[in-house]
Amino acid sequence: GVQTCALPISLLDEVVRSAPALHEAVLARAELGIRRGDHAGASALLAPFVEEHPELPAARALLAAARWGEGRSSDALDLCRDLERDQPADPQAPYWRGIILAGQGRADEARAALCRALELAPGNFAILERLVEVEVSSGQRVEAAQRLEAELARTPPRQEPALLLARVLASSVEVTRSEQVLVAASARHPDS
Fold first, then answer.
1. Among residues 47, 128, 129, 116, which one has the least CA distance to residue 87?
2. CA 135 to chain centre
3. If 144 and its partner were Cys, which of 42, 69, 87, 135 is the partner (CB 3.0–4.6 Å)?
4. Phi and psi of 90, rounded to 5°?
5. What does the DSSP 8-state code read for residue 37?
6. Torsion angle, CA of 163/160/153/94, rounded to 10 degrees?
7. How far are the Cα atoms of 55, 66, 131, 179 from residue 85, in angstroms, in the given order?
């Protein structure tokens, strides 16, 4: 219940207070705050931490997520752009930039950012799923389906892209093809 959830948070808070040099604890507490909707608390924790440790891309990406959650999209985008400039091989910044841009209704820019993130982290299903969501929501179902079919052609085949493809096809009234994808995915992964 609620008490069991509060105990680890209070312990994590104590670790962060007593040993701020434990970067993992600070990042874990900030991520937990973001997941629980406490974007302001995560932002307050991360801002001084990022200032002290700008070399940690995960901290900067979490700060961007916290700022976005606070409704500070411009600050979040600036953080993402700075991170992309400083860490061009890290997929977190273009991923978060894509999420923020999609939230602003800037589908083409969001798509470009998410494509960049996927280039940096091929096979990352979270990035792929978000990219497909942007494509579908902006009416690019054919492109989304083609992207997912290409992912399915990769070795080894994975069930997640097949299920996402079936969803995309079903949403575009290609029900028969959607059923075929589901049957094929079930045949490849009978235990799922």
1. 116
2. 15
3. 135
4. -90, 120
5. T
6. 120
7. 12, 20, 22, 44
Which candidate, 92, 157, 176, 153, places its Cα nearest to that of 126?
A: 92
Highest mean pLDDT among 27-31, 36-40, 173-177: 36-40
Number of Cα atoms under 13 Å in the Cβ half of residue 55: 1
Residues 70 and 24: their CA atoms lie apart, in Å, by 23
Q: How far, CA to CA in Å, does 56 sit from each of 46, 49, 89, 120? A: 11, 10, 13, 18
- Alpha helices, H only, 36-106: 39-52, 57-69, 73-86, 92-103
Burial of 76 (0-12, 13-18, 19+ CB in 10 A): buried
Distance CA 9, CA 2 (A): 11
